[in-house]
């Protein structure tokens, strides 16, 4: 209890020092193509829990004595929807709230409603802008009906950065593709992932070089009930070969290639700056 501070795995590992003695990373994810090398940029996000507080009353007998927290939440969600035209297409903003508590009993005016949402965007400034508009919208719902609104914000992931295909990983992918009779491709630089999703790989990229490749072997979409691995060799064996061959190429000859990558990398944050930035999002504010 109280030992974990950030919600993302790599985010927390950075904070506790697990990356302090690491200079370079190779990252893999399941993808749609047989083999791909390099990476798109991806959205980052912050997470929010919005808790509306009203006043309970009998829903049929004395509704005029209550303050309906569900009405406040409904207005807040509507106000949030009206923000969408203010988001730039290039920022790839995605906000997708759910109601996790909508009241207690059907014959009681709801006195507590809880909404959870992620606020995603392609860059730090767009995340901050969308987060402020999200707070403003939910605050408006509370003010409109006389409820109170508590908004707790926590850091999520930083946006992932578009990354050129590394020549050592690419060479390893070529060999693995040839021996397994699979296709490979290079991810186009400076493109944003169509999914709008997020990955904590972006947090690591802000501190040190990350070399990325993906392999397929799946059916259906990621994080869906129909997801399944249908090509064990591609998903597991080819993936292991690329990891091993990449490590060999980076570390041979006294790790000359790996040292070159590390020397040429320009981090966006130091570890201390990263922690300060992440901590700046941790807050709980009440509007009433």
Structural summary, described in words:
The chain has helices at residues 9-16, 69-81, 124-145, 167-180, 201-205, 232-264, 271-279; strands at residues 25-30, 35-37, 44-53, 94-95, 98-101, 112-121, 148-157, 184-186, 210-215, 218-219, 228-229, 283-287. By secondary structure, the chain is of the alpha+beta class. Strands 3, 4, 5, 6, 7 and 12 form a six-stranded antiparallel β-sheet that branches. The protein has a four-stranded mixed β-sheet with strand order 1-9-2-8. β10 and β11 (228-229) form a beta hairpin. α2 packs antiparallel against α3 and α4 packs antiparallel against α6 (232-264). The chain is elongated, with a radius of gyration of 23 Å. The two termini are 31 Å apart.
Topology:
Blueprint: H1 9-16, E1 25-30, E2 35-37, E3 44-53, H2 69-81, E4 94-95, E5 98-101, E6 112-121, H3 124-145, E7 148-157, H4 167-180, E8 184-186, H5 201-205, E9 210-215, E10 218-219, E11 228-229, H6 232-264, H7 271-279, E12 283-287
Parallel strand pairs: 1-9, 2-8
Antiparallel strand pairs: 2-9, 3-6, 3-7, 4-6, 5-6, 7-12, 10-11
Helix pairs in contact: 2-3, 4-6
